[in-house]
Design brief:
30% strand; two-stranded antiparallel sheet; 8-stranded mixed β-sheet; 4 helices; 191 residues; binds NADP nicotinamide-adenine-dinucleotide phosphate
């Protein structure tokens, strides 16, 4: 059955981007990583937050603005409240509104393969709605001290996880977790 995976690189102190959305630290350790290769092969569609798309496309950055640096090809959906009237990249479809409907749309496009979610704000909403099956975190050996947290939800209930993979690829530690059933909603209800 197709899974919804939140795939992210994180500093050891829990940031997915440093101050000013800095991400260069995440690209320093670019050893081959079989865990990433497996994700690329099993992913049918991606859902990206509008900020992740925009920030990643900035010319001064090491990212390409394409998921997996262009190593993955397929339907890419961008969540935004303000979809542009025209977009030059026909691979990108803009979605607005309800996160459950968005995930349902992206799962359909994935055609039986997995869906990857990119961007902390979007992923947190998916977690809140019980829409994420797995969390795959690449821990980079750095302390950033400030930036965008992997998960920030003061006062909310904890999210229970089960570790299913711990592996190394060069300096990176891969951590994979299954999101255990929570009290609210699950993907099967997404229509
Ligand atoms: N470490 C990593 O692996 C990794 C990966 C990707 C990105 N990043 C970094 O993460 C940062 C971006 O993440 P982020 O959490 O700030 O933002 P994000 O999740 O990428 O995007 C947030 C945006 O998505 C749109 N959005 C969210 N929920 C929506 C909804 N329900 N309906 C419609 N639109 C919705 C809104 O766009 P509008 O304002 O257009 O409405 C919102 O501003 C950047 O610094 C990027 O470099 C890190």
């Amino acid at each position: 059955m197709a899974k919804v995976l939140w795939h992210v690189t994180m500093s050891l102190d829990g940031f997915i981007a440093g101050p000013g959305d800095s991400m260069d630290w995440a690209f320093v350790h670019s050893a081959p990583n079989p865990t990433v290769d497996e994700v690329i092969q099993t992913t049918g569609a991606v859902l990206v937050g509008r900020r992740s798309l925009e920030v990643g496309k900035q010319a001064t950055r090491l990212e390409t603005g394409k998921p997996y640096g262009g190593a993955w090809k397929g339907p890419e959906f961008v969540l935004t409240h303000r979809p542009p009237e025209q977009h030059p990249d026909r691979e990108v479809t803009f979605l607005s509104g309800d996160i459950r409907r968005a995930i349902s749309t992206v799962l359909q496009a994935a055609d039986g393969k997995n869906v990857v979610v990119i961007g902390a704000h979007v992923a947190q909403q998916c977690i809140d709605e019980g829409l994420i099956d797995e969390l795959l975190v690449h821990v980079a050996p750095i302390l950033l001290g400030d930036g965008i947290r992997l998960f920030g939800r003061p006062g909310a209930l904890p999210i229970d996880l089960e570790a299913t993979e711990v592996s190394r690829a060069g300096a990176i530690t891969n951590l994979r977790f299954r999101v255990l059933p929570q009290q609210r909603g699950d993907k099967a209800d997404a229509t």
